[in-house]
Amino acid sequence: MAVLWVLLGGMLGAPLRFGATRLTAKFWKHKFPLGTFWINVVGSFCLGALYGAQAGETAWLLVGTGVLGAFTTFSTFGVEAAGLFEQKTPLLALLYLLGSSFCGLLGAALGQAWYTGG
Length: 118
What we know:
It catalyses: fluoride(in) = fluoride(out). GO terms for molecular function: fluoride channel activity; metal ion binding. This protein has a domain of 45 residues. Helices cover 85% and strands 0% of the residues. By secondary structure, the protein is mostly helical. The chain has 5 helices and no strands.
């Protein structure tokens, strides 16, 4: 049953990421990969809130692993960062790497604090 929950969540998270990335690309024409950046920060916030809610196993499988696992993307983040280095924009690449890491951690902490009231 666990695989079914992950599958159902992933079926929602993947198209959400696809749509959010496409929508961002319509309005953002800069080299900085804003779509992946904000998707990962929002996903971190939501996962932090799920953690703060002390969600049960089914919620973790469906929402945490399924929806948010498919919505957020570490692999795309890595490829985009490498691409920025390859395009000879090392400062932008470092901003993306450090900014994504910091804002992702901050998002997770704020999500947890928001849910727990702390």
